[in-house]
Design goal:
The structure holds two protein chains of two kinds. Chain A is mostly helical. Chain A has helices at about 15-30, 35-60, 65, 70-100, 100-105, 110-140, 155-180, 185-195, 210-215, 220-230, 235-270, 270-275. In chain B, the strands form two sheets. Chain B has a six-stranded mixed β-sheet, sandwiched between helices. Classes of the chains: A mainly alpha, B alpha/beta.
Chain lengths: ~280, ~250
């Protein structure tokens, strides 16, 4: 037997090669479809344009907004990171389901955990394609650059991405468990977090009983932190710690739900039956 | 290589009240081709799925290439592969792109050379750079076979490998599988409804009905035992629950 499959498929640990293979599969998919790339960039750009004009109007009429030009635009762009991170995971997963490819993938040495990591990598790529043009367009259109946030932008980005991954993995688990009927969750779930994330208003605006719930979302810490930077010029380490702690919970729960659902699918034969 | 490629003992799969596979036991010698025969719902695909580890058995043991599939699946998967008409490759990717992705998933070092070899061997040259979704059923079957052979598996599990193919393409696939097995001494377990295919390719047949193995033997033995002239007649006898003549 001269099998060419190298025995580099270590049974333990994660394989960069296999993660890369899944990323390559989705790169081919994106490369071959201008419509997919256009769709990725379309909504963030439209949102940015709408909120850019809204901001211009408010600057003349609201002293709160006028104190920090671009606070609404920054909020829009940062919130879109959560949405794109989540949708990047979920849609990449759904692409495998729609193409009835899951069984082929999981008779290879690919592990569910490697698949999850590959989905996260794809989520970063999809987020960059989606939010990148909006970020760049905001500079000539409204003289607003998100990069003016400086170094705090990096932890903001990381924390929001992780929150999106956690929700995305949980949604993938629900779709595996409940089938095509749960696909709508892919687009709807993250919006359920928007009212309690303090995107456009401080958490203190919420009713007192809702505030503890809001502090259970990483985004609430990030947006409070963003306002602290933009209004007070202060980077709040306590808020970053809060975001990281809640992020750890989100990613752990998301991964747990995904792996549990995967195990259930393996017990019920759903990996063979998934499809349109 | 292990002398026994597959060892199955008391394999059972129950879905709530339905028992899809009911305590079957069999072995497949390394380097042979064996068929799982049975009507729709007999348990063939469920058995293949459990051998691949895609489906967890309710009870029983599966050892593949000398390893316990429940605990050592990761060691075995690089050495086996499968193809089924019920599973697709991504339609928007070309043949070559699909093979490259799977080549990387199996950790093949010289993936470009391997793909070129498969494209030539399986006569995929004319459509190697076309999306799989744009191919005919016969072309897609050959691409699926190329995917199944990308890692030169020691064990190949095939679910209805020539379903929906015209006789010419079906014959071509069977010839290719025979040549592959001769060249590498691979083991092939196939589930099929095509009796001619089974008679031609298989040394041994496992007849399934309602999740149980109801008979087994070489195609010639079964034909003789049931006093019939073709395996198809034997299949009909078993499917319709008639007892063996002897």
């Amino acid at each position: 037997m001269t099998a060419r499959a190298l025995r580099q498929n270590a049974p333990v640990g994660l394989s960069i090669g296999r993660i890369g293979a899944i990323v390559l599969r989705h790169y081919y998919l994106l490369k071959g479809s201008w419509a997919r790339i256009f769709e990725l960039a379309y909504w963030p750009t439209v949102q940015m344009i709408i909120w850019g004009f809204t901001t211009q109007f408010f600057i003349g009429h609201s002293s709160w907004v006028a104190q920090a030009t671009g606070v609404l635009l920054a909020a829009v762009l940062l919130w879109d990171i959560v949405f794109r991170a989540q949708i990047g995971i979920t849609v990449s997963f759904l692409e495998e389901q729609w193409s009835r490819n899951l069984a082929n993938l999981f008779v290879t040495p690919l592990k569910p955990s490697e698949f999850a990591v590959a989905l996260m990598v794809m989520s970063i790529i999809r987020t960059a394609i989606g939010v990148g043009p909006a970020v760049l367009l905001a500079i000539p259109l409204y003289h607003f650059s998100i990069f003016d946030l400086g170094l705090p932008l990096i932890p903001f980005f990381v924390c929001l991405m992780i929150m999106g991954w956690g929700i995305g993995l949980a949604v993938c688990g629900l779709v595996l468990r409940f089938g095509a009927g749960a696909e709508g969750l892919a687009w709807a779930t993250v919006f359920g977090f928007a009212p309690i994330s303090g995107i456009y208003y401080p958490i203190s605006t919420l009713p007192w009983w809702l505030q503890p719930v809001a502090w259970g979302t990483p985004a609430a810490y990030v947006f409070e932190g963003m306002r602290a930077v933009m209004y007070e010029g202060v980077f709040r380490w306590d808020l970053l710690a809060g975001a990281l702690i809640t992020d750890a919970a989100y990613i752990a729960v998301g991964l747990f739900l995904f792996l549990i659902a995967f195990r259930w699918a393996r017990r019920q034969g759903k990996l063979l039956q998934q499809g349109e | 290589m292990a002398l026994t490629a597959i060892e199955v003992d008391g394999l059972t799969k129950r879905f709530e009240r339905v028992t899809a596979v009911d305590g079957i036991s069999f072995t497949v010698a390394a380097g042979t081709t064996v068929a799982l025969l049975g009507g729709n719902g007999a348990g063939k695909t469920t058995t293949l799925a459990m051998l691949l580890g895609l489906l967890e058995p309710t009870a029983g043991e599966v050892r593949v290439l000398g390893r316990d599939m429940r605990h050592e699946r990761a060691h075995v998967l690089p050495r086996m592969n499968f193809s089924s008409p019920y599973v697709d490759l991504p339609h928007r990717l070309t043949t070559r792109q699909n093979l490259r992705v799977y080549g990387h998933l199996y950790g093949i070092e010289d993936v470009g050379d391997r793909i070129s070899g498969l494209i030539e061997d399986l006569d995929l040259v004319g459509f190697a750079d076309r999306p799989v979704g744009a191919l005919s059923a016969g072309q897609r079957t050959r691409v699926a076979l190329a995917k199944a052979l990308i890692n030169e598996p020691e064990l190949l599990l095939l679910d209805e490998p020539t379903a929906s193919l015209d006789p010419d393409t079906g014959d071509w696939v069977r010839s290719y599988l025979e040549a592959y097995q001769r060249r590498l001494g691979a083991t092939i377990l196939l589930a099929s409804h095509n009796m001619g295919e089974v008679e031609r390719l298989c040394r041994h047949v496992l007849m399934l009905r309602q999740g149980r193995i109801v008979d087994r033997g070489s195609p010639a033995d079964l034909i003789q035992r049931y006093g019939r002239s073709t395996l198809e007649q034997v299949f009909l006898d078993i499917a319709r629950s008639r007892e063996a003549a002897q």
